[in-house]
Amino acid sequence: MQIALRKITKIPLDFEVKSDEITFKGYLQYDSGKLILLKAKLSGKITTDCNICADEFKLDIDEDLELFISDGLYKSSEEYPEDIIEVLNSVVDLEEIMNSEIALIKSDYLSCEGCKTK
Ligand SMILES: [Zn+2]
């Protein structure tokens, strides 16, 4: 799902993206300057590898996300506390954001139920 940044206003624009067993649902809202707020929930299951036994297992996730999208390059010299995603072609790709958030979760140290209880 791709959304042109110019369509995003102060009125929250709802979106919902689904892939396999994951739902990424929330809204986009114009903030200030070149920034657009993205608030969403990432929920469902992801398949990942256990860091201990290397077996594949399913991890339940239920994460609240709040980040900003910058229309063009964002000057890092300006202080901004949240995560910022820079979009260079003025179109935000929600699947891409979802996939990078999933990749971030998978990069954590994760262990399956069997290893957790050992
Ligand atoms: Zn394991």
Walkthrough of the structure:
This protein is mostly beta strands. The chain has one domain (2-116). It is built from two helices and seven strands. The strands form two sheets. The chain has a five-stranded mixed sheet, with helices on one face. The protein has a two-stranded antiparallel ribbon with strand order 1-7. A hairpin with a 2-residue loop joins β3 (22-32) and β4 (35-49). The longest helix is centred in the C-terminal third of the chain and has 13 residues, at 94-106. The radius of gyration is 16 Å and the shape is elongated. The relative contact order is 0.23. The mean pLDDT is 91. The chain binds zinc ion (ZN). The site of zinc ion (ZN) has 8 residues, from α2.
In whole angstroms, the N-to-C terminal distance is 42 Å
* String of helices and strands: EEEEEEEHH
DSSP helix fraction: 10-25%
Rg (CA only): 16 Å
Q: How much of the polypeptide forms β-strand, as a percent range? A: over 45%
Q: Report the count of strand segments.
A: 7
> What do the pLDDT scores average to?
91
Extract low-pLDDT stretches: none
The number of helical elements comes to 2
User: For the largest beta sheet, what order do the strands appear in spatially?
Assistant: 2-3-4-5-6
Task: Indicate the structural class.
Answer: mainly beta
Largest sheet: 5 strands, mixed
- Give the names of the bound compounds: zinc ion
Number of domains: 1
Q: Overall 3D geometry?
A: elongated
